[in-house]
Amino acid sequence: MLKHLSEFFQIIRKGLIEPFHYKRISLKDEEKKGESRTPLKQEGAPKKKKIKNWSGTLKRIWGYLAVNRLQLSLVLVMVILSSVLALLGPFLIGMAIDNYIVEWDASGLVRVLIGLAIIYLMYSLSIWLQNYWMIAIAQKTVYTMRTQLFNHLHKLPIPFFDKRQHGELMSRITNDIENVSSTLNSSFIQIFSSVLTLLGIVSVMLWLSPLLTLLTMIVIPMMFFGMKWITKRTGKLFKEQQRHLGSLNGFIEETVSGQRIVKAFSQEEKVTREFLVKSENLKTAGFWAQTFSGFIPKLMNMLNNLSFTIIAAMGGVFALLELITIGTIVIFAEYSRQFTRPLNDLANQFNTLLSAIAGAERVFEIIDEEPEEKESTKDKPISFDHLKGEVEFVQASFSYEKGGNTIRNISFHVQPGQTVAFVGPTGAGKTTIINLLSRFYDLDSGSLLIDGHEITSIKREELRKHMGFVLQDSFLFQGTVRENIRYGRLDATDQEIVEAAKLANAHSFIMKLSQGYDTVLTHGGSGISQGQKQLLSIARAILANPSLLILDEATSSIDTITELKIQEALERLMKGRTSFVIAHRLNTIQKADQIMVLEDGQIIEQGSHEELLQQQGFYHGLYHSQLREVM
């Protein structure tokens, strides 16, 4: 408690002089026991992101809302009706005091009470209807936003995902959009209702007593300057809170996905410590965001009491001078309470709106990312009904980072139906060539031709439709075995799936599963062996019937018997197809038509297995070193 009070007073002092900053806690800070965590500006820290475009973000949100114009119009009608009814109630109470209670008119008072009952029933009904319709609009809006964001993610290039934490992207799809949803559910109605109520209250108060109205308005400048001071700081704090929430979600997703590695290396304590640091950062950001936004209702309550005191004091004086009636004082007292309530609502909703805009902006940042298809296609893209499979690299160079040399001046030619293998040490550029061939990335210089056409003139979707992949880490989705194989071609029949599984030597083990092809696999395919996953991946590739085949360490970490099954299945799959194989175990590529030996991003040797052995170069040494290891 004392620590938070100390921080609080330091923030108040610093906030009066300059915009609010606070130090983000690092893992090193966490390990230094007893050090202060005063929220001060961190030297050398990057500048915090602000909401870049208020009006633009709000216009885009309105674009989603405007689709439901009819329901939105009904909501506005109900908001206007409820605001009028809310103003009518206190006015009738004041009139009842002056015209019926003071005059001892019981029948007139009963009529007013009946009228009040009807008014408040209609008020309740209008509130329920506007909330019901607005919730429906809000849910449709966020459904559209979430669907658009999810669909757009599938159009983004691989480099985008390489540079982003997956959990942080998940946070944008879930937390940020949910933030927009909760704001639309309540804030839209409250803001509009509060504005209408304020206009109505001021109009009636001026009509009843301009002088008492002016005295009541003394609190307005205090509210304005107090709100300005508070909201100046809350916007950045809510943005920071959302950023830390995304970072924490990303870390959790990463840790849960890599739980086997965490346990295998006994790093539970380390990841727990990192989690505590990120959680502490989120807690600190949330604490100060909510603390500053919490000033608003306290300020409003204080000014509300001040306004009520002014009305009671000056209203009593005016009543004694017979300038106003007792009923008018009651109306003013009730309206003063209603006057500060919409101001309070506007202030609170402003903070909520800040948080929602920050979340919406993070969503729109992803939606505005350039989609993959527009990234580098130079001319009108061409399509193929069938690829022959002729591939040629001409003086191709590429680097993942500017100034790097991942591959340099690579040139080779592959005839249709040939098998090409890439070998070399880690980091030599083997996977990079495959990434370029798949158009996950585009060349920095040089050319890559497919059937004589520049690869950038072929639509990525069209190119990948003719490609099949069998990777080292076979990814299986949560679903049945049948659904995972059908992922290669969604229109395949059950019989075609079974035939593909037989060609992949997977049919026999599938039939031994509890439900055969209808056995449900969990995420990642846990419950079956790595070799069985590979066989399912091969069956998926066979079903796709590709012209170009990519094999990335497809037999690594597999026992000898399973490897023979996989090799047999791969030979069937590769027959008649242009195949590109990445291999560390050279015994699996001896039949390849061409073997490319890469080192430091360049081809240093090229030829068949026998030709490379006769050269007695790098490949010769690598092959015999592996042969000795086996013996």
List the SSEs and their pairings.
Layout: H1 2-15, H2 27-31, H3 54-65, H4 69-101, H5 106-153, H6 158-162, H7 166-208, H8 210-216, H9 219-257, H10 259-264, H11 268-320, H12 326-367, E1 391-398, E2 407-414, E3 419-423, H13 430-437, E4 445-450, E5 453-454, H14 460-465, E6 467-470, E7 479-480, H15 481-486, H16 494-503, H17 507-511, E8 520-521, H18 530-544, E9 548-552, H19 560-574, E10 578-582, E11 594-599, E12 602-607, H20 609-615, H21 618-630
Parallel strand pairs: 3-10, 3-11, 6-9, 9-10
Antiparallel strand pairs: 1-2, 1-4, 4-5, 7-8, 11-12
Helix pairs in contact: 3-12, 4-5, 4-7, 4-12, 5-7, 5-12, 7-8, 7-9, 7-12, 9-11, 9-12, 11-12, 16-18, 18-19
Overall 3D shape: elongated
Distance between the termini: 69 Å
User: Can you name the CATH architecture of the domain at 48-367?
Assistant: Up-down Bundle
Question: Averaging pLDDT over every residue, what do you get?
Answer: 76
Spans of at least 5 consecutive residues whose pLDDT stays below 50 are 1-49
Q: Biggest sheet: strands, sense, closure?
A: 6 strands, mixed
CATH superfamily of the domain at 48-367: ABC transporter type 1, transmembrane domain
Counted by DSSP, the helix tally is 21
The side-by-side strand order for the widest beta sheet comes to 6-9-10-3-11-12
Structural class: alpha/beta
The CATH topology of the domain at 48-367: ABC transporter transmembrane region fold
Radius of gyration: 35 Å
Overall CATH class of the domain at 48-367: Mainly Alpha
Number of strands: 12
Helix content: 55-70%
Q: In percent terms, what proportion of residues is strand?
A: 5-15%
